[in-house]
Amino acid sequence: MPGLQKATQQQTKTHNSRLVLEAIYDRRQISRADISRLTNLTRTTVSDLVTELQGKGLVEEIGYGQSRGGRSPILLSVIDDARHLIGIDLENDELRGAVVNLRNEIISTASLPLHSREGDEALMLVYELVDRLIASTDKPLLGIGVGTPGLVDASNKVVLRAVNLNWRGTPLGDLLQARYDLPVYVANDSQLAALAQYMFGADKYDSNLIVVKVGTGIGAGLILDGRLFHGDGFGAGEIGHISVVENGQQCRCGNLGCLETVASTPAIIKSVHALAQPLSNSPAPDAGDLTLDAVQESFAAGHPAATQAVLEAGRYLGIAAANLVGTLNVHRIVFLSQLARFGTPLLDAIRQEMVRRVLPTLTQDTEIELIDLRPEMVILGASALLMSHELGLKLAR
Question: Are 378 and 89 in contact (CB under 8 A)?
Fold first, then answer.
């Protein structure tokens, strides 16, 4: 029984320490007395915990606050660069990473082209990326957060399946932790993009939010009651590999007609290329030579192939939105994608198809947004997840 009592006391101390740190973090400048009032901890407890946080180099005294009739209180603040974090995004053809401080400010970045490498070769590339990032900072590291496509067992930090990396049952978290001797957290990239949008996006989001990330792949991140929802088998939001076209193109996952084959950015480029050939008297360029910028120019000019391809993709994304609304009835759906450049016409196509396929009472209060996907979105979500686990910081929006 004494051992059990000791463990409980340690857990209580850890919990209280996180309360104090979170109070200082959220308020940016706060006195010990105000921390005590805010957390309902005794002043002695607060003073002891602050001393510990100062000893760890996380908190510092920054001056005096306004007096309330006695001595001016000493103000405390979190040292933003007391720890650095490494955030990694493995979703695209170019693996990206960044060193981030405790305010989720990006300190340095690095990237490496994937060049279709997969399996162990892709893993070696992840190591090289992390090595570069570690070499770019001289601050103590809090840990590594990784966003990867595919099915991820976030609890055990295992990539159950990532099609584009050809990973199956890859214990990515354990491998990174063993190599770098740092805490590691791994989650689905769309879920981390949703977390970042919820934390750092507009204040209007309430406790429920769906974020659909459309890029090389397509996935949805679900925030329900203010928490990431992973699903019983960790596949919640894995909508990119739902078949939406009967006897359609073969997907990288092996199925036919998946959403990714008709609505991802590579799928749109491929569709423009295929549709443009019959409309041109000259040989069409190879699809690999087309870019999203070129598609945007053609779309803006009213080119039939670009218009058809983009709006058709919108229709399929609207089908996905309809299924999400019909299943979850969440009133906020954000599409995060470079496709935001196609603006209102694409958003209207998504919305019209969604409304057409769902009960009107479910869609009348549903708001859809189309927002440009910032390159650092997954990285910021990964670092937010890491700070939440390691320091107990629920980052304020």
Answer: yes
Tens-place pLDDT, residues 32-58: 999 999 999 999 999 999 999 999 999
Query: Cβ(333)–Cβ(353) under 8 Å?
Result: no
d(CA 162, CA 390): 26
pLDDT at position 7, please? Answer: 55
Quote the Cα angle for 255-257-263, to 5°.
125
Between CA 354 and CA 335 the distance in angstroms is: 13
Fill in the DSSP letter of residue 242: S
Token readout for 49 is 């915990």
| CA 133/CA 127 separation, integer angstroms | 10
Measure the CA–CA gap between 55 and 138, rounded to whole angstroms.
19
Which is it for strands 218-224 and 209-214: parallel, antiparallel or unpaired? antiparallel
Cα(3)–Cα(361) distance, integer angstroms: 57
CB 24 within 8 A of CB 61: no
Q: Report residue 148 as tokens.
A: 């990867």
**Separation CA 239–CA 316 (nearest Å):** 11
Residue 270 in contact with residue 276, Cβ under 8 Å? Answer: no
Strands 209-214 and 332-337: parallel
Query: Which tokens hold the place of 83?
Result: 């720890």
Q: How far is CA 266 from the centre of its chain?
A: 21
Alpha carbon distance 86, 100 (integer Å): 6
pTM summary value:
0.86
